[in-house]
Design goal:
1 helix; transmembrane; membrane
């Protein structure tokens, strides 16, 4: 009975750890994707502004 309880506890701990890791990984991936998208958008805006400025002056 003690062994069974220990196994159950170990399984539960492993499952919790796996779930936590998966959640962390998903969050990190989402954050990275958002940051990349934001950076791309900013770069595009900057490029457009520069092009407009160049076109306006010349």
């Amino acid at each position: 009975m003690y062994y069974y309880y220990y196994c159950y506890y170990y399984y539960y701990y492993y499952y919790y750890y796996y779930y936590y890791f998966y959640y962390y990984y998903y969050y990190y991936y989402y954050y990275y994707y958002y940051y990349y998208y934001y950076y791309y958008y900013y770069y595009y805006y900057y490029y457009y502004y520069y092009y407009y400025y160049y076109y306006y002056y010349y």
